[in-house]
Amino acid sequence: MAGRGIFAEIMDGDVFKYYVHGQWIKSSSGKACPIMNPTTRKTQFKVQACTQKEVNKVMDIAKTAQKSWAKTPLWKRAELLHKAAAILKQHSAPIAECLVKEIAKPAKDSVTEVIRSGDLVSYCAEEGVRILGEGKFLVSDSFPGNERTKYCLTSKIPLGVVLAIPPFNYPVNLAVSKIAPALIAGNSIVLKPPTQGAVAVLHMVHCFHLAGFPEGLINCVTGKGSEIGDFLTMHPGVNCISFTGGDTGIAISKKAGMIPLQMELGGKDACIVLEDADLDLAAANIVKGGFSYSGQRCTAVKVALVMESIANTLVKKINDRVAKLTVGPPENDSDITPVISESSANYIEGLVMDAKEKGATFCQEYRREGNLIWPLLLDNVRPDMRIAWEEPFGPVLPVIRINSVEEGINHCNASNFGLQGCVFTRDINKAMLVSDAMETGTVQINSAPARGPDHFPFQGLKDSGIGSQGITNSINLMTKVKTTVINLPMPSYTMG
Q: Where in the numbering of this chain does the Aldehyde dehydrogenase domain appear (predicted)?
């Protein structure tokens, strides 16, 4: 796995190097950050602890490389992205193996993430050529009071240096969803991966290295957030920040200054189930949406708002499916694997205990071993319980019984989050009315929330983020409009 074959050069003993100016190097700090295996709770990997001085150097290198890259023909940028995508997919197995050990993602899902990432890069290359290959032509006399004395040409040009910060749960996919749009648009990249997931990201970066991108265009620094986090996000050399994660993003947005921001933050994605819904379909999607990757997804179903008249039936159908979920290590492709850290498991347990004290109905016995928490459905959850509002990021799903559609919509909209939501009903008119009323970036009709396909727009309202993602939207966000106006002589009229 890691350290063998083409990936040998990214290691120094048992510590992974960081990447700058087309080279894999060690930090001058002489320090390393340990990466814990969530399953064994022991150190699995180590990465460099970069310094602020090294970050400064990386920023200077990225800025210089971007100037040349901006002049690189669009077809050439696309060609290199296609090459990187092929290499990434070719080496999906060792990268997936890192994901299994770093973030306890089931083995099959880990491979899927890498393959999906390669597809995203290729699609982005094609979409970028289409979007960026077009300009706009305007004439002055379309606006009242003007003669045709001005021709206006507009095109999209790069922003400069894009700082990309992906989260632990999809470190490879959410890294390339930032890198590929930035590169096709003519930007350079400084990538700061999460500590858990950093080694998989370093492997991915090496695939871009092997594709032959210019030196200094793609850079990846690792280290402690306390040492280089704020230093990176407030760095004057950064021209755009694309961040996916939790409420750290709110702090970043307050400090970042006048640059474009793409922030995808937390969610408390609500699922509203109406009386006429297909309950088998709803149950299947609630279980898939609530428990896949142990609920550690921003688009996971995090609260089910169910009409009282069908609640007993639906809860039983959900319970029957939960009973079939397998629990265990990610190497076994278990449905439920250990959550990312002990602190995360403790937080989830705190929500569960609060619900227990306040009278929630436990559909299963609460069970935990280390970071592994068995799937738990909580029925009869009330608004005074923390689990009704807070995001567990774990395999715990609350059910709130409602007496009207309005009650469900009101609960959804009272949240400070507004990422995604879903509604189950056979009546398309009702579905559209609920969709319009829900204050979320996306509403899924008769399906669990999901980010993909990766070219769909993806955005949140309120504390769930700013800016919009999806390949097309990301390319547009990572460019700015440049206008050139040609001034012509005033026309002279002759009377016929």
A: 24-483
Instruction: Report, at the CATH architecture level, how domain 270-445 is classified.
Output: 3-Layer(aba) Sandwich (3.40)
Where do we find the tokens 């400090």? 255
Query: CA 297 to CA 39: how far, in whole Å?
Result: 18
**Does a cis peptide bond (omega within 30 degrees of 0) precede residue 453?**
yes
Distance between alpha carbon 448 and the CA centroid of its chain, in Å? 17
How many Å separate Cα 353 from the centre of its chain? 30
How far from 486 is each of 138, 150, 157, CA to CA, in Å? 11, 6, 19
Is 264 in the active site? yes
Query: What does the pLDDT look like over 416-438, one tens digit per residue?
Result: 999 999 999 999 999 999 999 99
Cα separation of 412 and 393, whole Å?
18
Rounded (5°) CA angle 463-469-470? 145
Q: Residue 339 in contact with residue 296, Cβ under 8 Å?
A: yes
- Chain centroid offset of residue 479 CA: 20
Q: How far is CA 79 from CA 112, 121, 125, 208, 416, in A?
A: 23, 11, 8, 12, 43
- Report how far residue 446's alpha carbon sits from residue 423's, in angstroms, rounded to the nearest whole number: 6
- Residue boundaries of the structural domains of the chain: 5-265+464-481, 270-445
Q: Please tell me which residue in 264, 308, 349, 357 is annotated as part of the active site.
A: 264
Question: Alpha-carbon distance 465 to 21, whole Å?
Answer: 32
pTM for the predicted model, two decimal places: 0.96
Helix/strand/coil for 165:
strand
Q: Taking the domain 5-265+464-481, which CATH number applies?
A: 3.40.605.10
Q: What is the arrangement of strands in the sheet containing 479-487, beginning at the earlier edge strand?
A: 136-139, 150-158, 479-487
Beta carbons within 10 angstroms of residue 438's beta carbon: 22
| 3-class secondary-structure state, position 470 | coil
Q: Please name which of 264, 201, 169 lies closest in space to residue 457, comparing C-alpha atoms.
A: 264
Q: What angle is formed at CA 323 by the lines to CA 360 and CA 340, rounded to 5 degrees?
A: 75
pLDDT category at 3 given cuts 50, 70, 90 is very low
Helix (H) or strand (E) holding 180: helix 173-184
Structure tokens at 66: 């971007």
